[in-house]
Amino acid sequence: KVNILKPEQDIDTVKTENKELEEKVKLLESTTNEEQIQKLEEELSNIKMFSGAAKVEGEGLYINIALNREILSATLQRHLLSLINELKASSAQAISVNGERLTAMSEIRIVGEYVVINGRQHSAPFEIFAIGEPEKLYSGVYLNGSGPLAVIDKEKACDVTWNMKEKIVMEACNPLDILTDMLKNAETK
After folding, report:
1. What is the CA radius of gyration of the chain?
2. Contacts of residue 168, Cβ cutoff 8 Å, sequence gap at least 6
């Protein structure tokens, strides 16, 4: 089956990219070196915040999950992953679990009695902070009684507490958590 819309979508993408490049050229031509440096520094700052390489703050949601009875490792892992995924889908711009800043390369897995995040072992209770719009974050994880937070609470294996925070501060991730030594930029060739 041939997708007739594909060439049109490709053309739209190229037009959008061309417009963005033209705007960058105009900016470069119309600004001083100091202004260009300032713009690049702002862009770098945003990239560091997004990647987890910078300390950030903002409003958001705090969730505490304490185990009150034995729970299967696979069930705990499923709950944590589901909760993190819903936070991401609900506008979270930064997330930490027990002080571990989550990045694009972060893993959450069970090894023995521990939850391993970024290669480091953690045990309950789990303190989860998410920076984003607090109401959207809570709405996403609760989902009218069917979201991961509601499911965890209903199972009664964990005590769940949460509250919306006006100010959450998250440390930058450990620089060793962002590995890029095997990557090459394919767009610069």
Report:
1. 21
2. 57, 58, 59, 60, 62, 129, 130, 131
